[in-house]
Specification:
Distance between the termini: 8 Å
Pfam families: Ribonuc_L-PSP (PF01042)
Strand content: 25-35%
Number of domains: 1
Organism: Sphingobium limneticum
Number of helices: 4
CATH topology: 60s Ribosomal Protein L30, Chain: A
Strand order of the largest sheet: 1-2-3-6-4-5
Shape: globular
Helix content: 25-40%
Largest sheet: 6 strands, mixed
Order of helices and strands: EHEEHEHEEH
CATH class: Alpha Beta
Number of strands: 6
GO molecular function, one term: deaminase activity
Protein name: RidA family protein
Radius of gyration: 14 Å
């Protein structure tokens, strides 16, 4: 395997090409996933916040799966929220439903003032199981 290669999900949404970035880069046994938002197939935001957060996780999980990994292999998670104080009670239950079992990854949550029309973004670094790393 090259020192790094790009991983695309099976059905990538339009934002990757529109903004010219890779969904994830696999390197040295780790997957560095770009921030994932609740983008519909055409790249537009899912308007309902809870559904937007779930779609962000769905988009994230599609990338992890394409690399032969899963959220259970996440080691570092960063959350970005436009209005954490107002939205936390909506975001947290969706996050918990997708979080899995112990051992949990570490997490950093950051309030930001712009996410290109989205209210939530999740960025992950995940380990790729050895079997998948050789594929």
């Amino acid at each position: 395997m090259a020192d790094r290669d790009v991983v695309y999900p099976a059905n990538p949404h339009a934002l990757y090409d529109h903004h010219r970035y890779s969904p994830a880069v696999r390197s040295k046994g780790f997957l560095f996933v770009s921030g994932q938002v609740g983008a519909r197939q055409d790249g537009s935001p899912e308007p309902d916040l809870a559904a937007q957060v779930q779609l962000a996780f769905d988009n994230l999980n599609a990338i992890l799966s394409a690399a032969g990994s899963s959220f259970a292999n996440a080691v570092d998670v960063t959350l970005f929220m436009i209005d954490p104080e107002a939205d936390f009670d909506t975001i947290w239950p969706v996050l918990q439903a997708n979080w899995g079992e112990k051992p949990f990854p570490n997490i950093t949550a950051v309030g930001v003032n712009w996410l290109a029309g989205f209210q939530f973004e999740i960025k992950v670094i995940a380990r790729i199981p050895e079997e998948a790393d050789h594929g």
